[in-house]
Amino acid sequence: MDEICDELKEGRMYRVESTIRKLLCRIFHYSKIMNASTNRGLTSVSLKKTLIENHFDEYRNSLIAIAELNEYSRERVSDAFKNMLEILFTQHSLTGQTVLDRLPSSFM
Questions:
Q1: Cα gap 107→90, rounded to integer Å
Q2: In this predicted model, which residue has the larger pLDDT, 95 or 44?
Q3: E-strand stretches of the chain
Q4: Which stretch of DSSP H or E encloses residue 31?
Q5: Between residues 80 and 50, which one has the greater pLDDT?
Q6: Per-residue CA distances from 9 to 22, 60, 84 (Å)
Q7: Among candidates 81, 59, 60, 61, which has minimal Cα distance to 7?
Q8: Is the pTM here over 0.90, yes or no?
Q9: Is residue 12 part of a domain?
Q10: What percent of the chain has pLDDT over 70?
Q11: Is residue 43 a contact partner of residue 55, using CB atoms and an 8 Å limit?
Q12: Is 107 contained in some domain?
C-alpha cells in the first residue's frame, strides 16, 4: 500500500495501476482464487485482461476514484482499494462473500 501511495504522490498513475494488479494477484493467491479457464493462479497480465473484458467500467472508475483522492495517506488509499475490491468482486460473488473475507487472518 505504501508503494501505491508513493506512486500517487509522484503522479505515476501507470505505476499505480500495475501495482494494484500485483496486489490483487497476491490477494487472489492467498484467497485461493484461480483463473476459471486455466485452473491456475491469476497473473498480472491475465488479471488485466479479465478486468478489461468483464469489469472495464467498474475497474476504470475505481482507479479514477483512487487517483482523485484529496489525500494519499495509507488509510485513505487502503479504504479506496477495499472499496474497489467490494465493487469489483462482491457483486459477482455467488455467496456474497468478499475477497477479503477469504484471506487468511495472517495476511491482514
A1: 19
A2: 44
A3: none
A4: helix 13-31
A5: 80
A6: 19, 19, 19
A7: 81
A8: no
A9: yes
A10: 87
A11: no
A12: no
pLDDT tens digits, one per residue of 74-103: 999 999 998 998 888 765 555 656 677 777
Number of domains within the chain: 1
Task: Judge whether 108 lies within some domain.
Answer: no
For residue 41, give the DSSP letter: B
Rounded to 5 degrees, φ, ψ at 41 are: -65, 155
Contact 85, 8 (CB under 8 A): no
- Amino acid identity of residue 49, one-letter, is K
Q: Which DSSP symbol is given to 69?
A: -
Beta-bridged to residue 34, according to DSSP, are 41
Of 15 and 106, more confident: 15
Half-sphere exposure (Cβ direction) of 34: Cα atoms closer than 13 Å: 5
> Which domain range does residue 56 map to?
2-102
d(CA 107, CA 46): 23
Mean per-residue pLDDT for 10-19? 94
Residue 17 CB: number of other CB atoms within 10 A? Answer: 19
3-state secondary structure of 34: strand
Average pLDDT, the chain: 85
Structural domain contains residue 15? yes
